[in-house]
Each structure stands twice: as C-alpha cells, then as structure tokens.
Write a structure and sequence with these properties.
Blueprint lengths: L4 H10 L5 H13 L34 E7 L7 E9 L6 E5 L3 E2 L4 E2 L6 E8 L2 E2 L2 E3 L6 E5 L6 E9 L15 E4 L7 E2 L8 E8 L4 E3 L15 E4 L3 E2 H5 L3 E4 L1 E8 L2 E7 L9 H18 L7 E7 L7 E3 L3 E6 L15 H8 L7 E3 L16 H4 L1 H14 L4 H15 L16 H4 L8 H4 L6 H17 L6 H9 L9 E3 L6
Parallel strand pairs: 1-13, 19-20, 20-22, 23-24
Antiparallel strand pairs: 1-2, 2-10, 3-9, 3-12, 4-5, 6-7, 6-10, 8-9, 11-17, 13-15, 13-16, 14-17, 18-19, 21-22
Length: 500
Amino acid sequence: MQVEPVAAMKTIMSISRAAAPLLSALLLATTAHPALAQVQPETNTRPMAVPITPSVPDPQDVPYPGTIALEIDASDVTTGAFRVTETIPVADGASKITLLFPEWLPGNHGPRGTLAELTDVRFFANGQPLKWTRDPVEVFAFHVELPAGTKEVVARFVHTSPLRESEGRIVMTREMLNLQWEKMSLYPAGHYVRQIKVRPTVTFPQGWTAYTALDGKSAPDAKTGANRVSWDVTDYETLVDSPIFAGLYAQRFDLGKNVYLSTVADKPELLAIKPENLQTYRNLVDEALAAFGAKHFDHYDLLLAMTDRMGGIGLEHHRSSENQYEPRTLVDWEKGDWDRNVISHEFAHSWDGKFRRPAKLWTPDYRQPMQDNLLWVYEGQTQFWGYVLAARAGTQSKDMVLANFANWAGSFTQYPGREWRSVEDTTHDPVFAARKAKPFPSLARNEEYYTEGALVWLEADQIIRDGTGGKKGLDDFAKAFFGIRDGDWGVVPYEPTFSK
C-alpha cells in the first residue's frame, strides 16, 4: 500500500510530542540501515538483556520525618468513590520522593493491592503540579520530582471502588461502607511502615456511625455539621491493620474484656439479636481467652456487616476483624447456623497469625513479598480453633461443627490432587492462582491449607493425647505457644525447627 506524503505528514503530526522523538529515532535507525530488513538467518542479530537497575529504596528501620495527614471523603454513596488528599512532608533538600501503593497485603497472603482502582493521581507542591513517573518494573511505585525548597507534597487521587461484582468486591452501598486504608493511601519508600506516622481523617455520610480499632476518635465537626472524624496520630502499620465499618444502621454490643461486636446492617431490624444468642458471643470471648491463656490486644472490635449488598469478607487484624453475615443470620438464629463461623475464625487470628506469625509472613513494608509456606499453621490451626471455639461458645452448634470436619475428611478421600501435591504446597496458591476458579479443582487442588490444615491439627491433638495418656491435648499446646507476654500486641515470629 502506498501512502501519500501529505497523509503521512498529517499522521506524524497527530502523534503526541512526547512520542515524536522516539519515533524519529526509530525512523532514522531504519533508513540508516536499509539492509536490516533483508538479513539472512545465519546473520540474525542476537540481543543481550538490558540490566534492571533497582530504583526503589529498600525499607530501613528508621523514622520517617514528620507526620502524614491523610484525609478521605467517603460521603459519596452514589458513585462509591473515595476522594483522597494526602499531605506528605519531605526531607530538607530532597530532589525526589518515591511513594508506594501497598501491594502485598497482610491477611491476603499474596499481592492483592487494588492499584487499578487508584485513579486521577496528581501531586502538588506549593500549589503547583509536580512531574511524576510510574516505575516500569515496580509499577506500584510513583517517582515524584521535587522543586528546590519543597517542604511537603500534596497527593490527590480517587479510589474508584467497584459498583458491581464483576469489578471486584463492593465496599460501599447506600447503607454502609468498609474503608480499608491500604486501598486509598500512599506511603514513602525506604522506611519500615511502623516508622511512618499518619494522622487520619474521614468524612462519612450524615447520620452514619463508624467503628474501628483506631484510638482517639474525635467528635464530628460541630461548626460545619459535617460527619468528619479524626483519630490520633498512629503509625502506618497500625493504620492499615485498623479498617473501618460504618453505616446508617449501626449498633455496638459490649461482650466484656474490652471486646465489642460492632455491627452495621442493610436494615435496622437485622440487628435485633436475642439476648441468649448475644450471650454466645460473650462466651466466645471467654472461651478464646481460656484456650490461648493470654490477651494480645488492649481492645478488640468484631466488625460485622449484616448484608447481601456489600461484598462478603472475613479478614483478620490484631485488634479487630472484618466479617460479613447474610442479612438475617442474627435474627433467624437456627437457619443461620452455617454462616456464623467467620467471627470465631477471625477472632482466633489475633493470637494465631497476628501475635504469633511465621517469620517470613511478617514484612517491614507492603512491597516485600511474603512467603506462605507456614500457612498450614497460620490458617490451618486457626481453622481448627475457629470451629472448636464456636462449638464451645454456642455461636455454632456442635452438630454443625462436627459435620464440617466430617465433610472435609470425606472429601479428601476423593481428591486425586493429594497424590501429587502436598497440603503445604497449597500454601502458595494465593500467590500464583489468585483465588480464581480452576477447571479441575480436585486434581489441581486449591487453598486446602485451611481445611486439610485443620485436620492436621485435629490429628496433632490426638497425637498429644495418645502420648500423654489423655492428660494433655492441643489446648495445652495453645497455652504454651500463644499464652505468652499477656497484653503484648506486637508480633512474635516463628520458624520451623526439626530435631531427630
């Protein structure tokens, strides 16, 4: 096909100025070496790899200078968009700053950062827009150029939360929201996240109540009438570990021992739990403390959404957990028996997975990859305790709990995947399979470190009982392993040790 010169010139002129120099270089290279198009196979060129030079600094355990102000407008229930303004101080004389969006998220066991939902990203200093580039290798990193004398960078962006299930988990409806800080904040590279100070503020829809494990909650703004709430300065690690449930229909139940059931619902009548059923959650607190022998939080919120409009979730944190029930699970108690295990599971994680954690699943920031090999301990043992504690407390019936164990044991007798793949190897599924559906799941296997992992710990209980003549069981192991340093809500990591 022959292209007329005038048409070719118009096409070239339509190309953006940014791309024009590259196009010119390519055209020059082609015209300078016309023989390249006619080379013979024996003279083909063989390129060499271009070295990749790391451009994102590794985290150091040193304080970040200053305090980040993070302000989120979460009041738009129509679009579900969270509008963010983040003011980040910078060191004197800095010519650039690298800001990271969290990628490897605790409790997700893989790189689950929702970067695609981070939109309209802009940076400013002294009211002027700044030039930035995304790192071509580590695409969760933003390199921002700073003019001389810059004291702080203001980042503005929008977290466009999903409006339908095909786009991801829905986190905002007309009646409630689930705000997870890591989805709508950036943090400076080069520091342990526990060394980065943040002051968070959120504006909620009028009339909504917010629940979170964060400390120092302020009252709404009396002057403007806005439902704008701030919390005390905290570190970024604690912030990410302290999500928010907020809603129009909300109620908080005191379970004792500084533990609360903090609920939001699609409708107010869905919160009408009977006193005898509420008592089972108080029992759960007592049973967990008795089993584990220590408390590793100063206060704890069981965040619970009674909904089929906001997306389901069960996610552990040190002083709270994110949980979802079907709308009528609390009021139709017997019918909802199957649905109530998530709270006991996530509560047990405060001990197993948060306080005691595999050493390679603890990372200094959300850029370093996590190594999942010991999830059969982290999740498998929690799966065991989640069901055992539920039966002991009465949040689930004993028959329901035994039926689940029997179902797992029976299904694994029909699992051809167990012939080639160990339960330990399934711990890598969150990284490479991303929890998507598989064509032949019984052959491929899924994340069975939960269910077969629970059976491993049921067998461990039997081994202990057999070896001690019935005098000890897994309860004794739990007290020895988790029941240390009462009141400490830091992290005590562990690694496997083997002896002959």
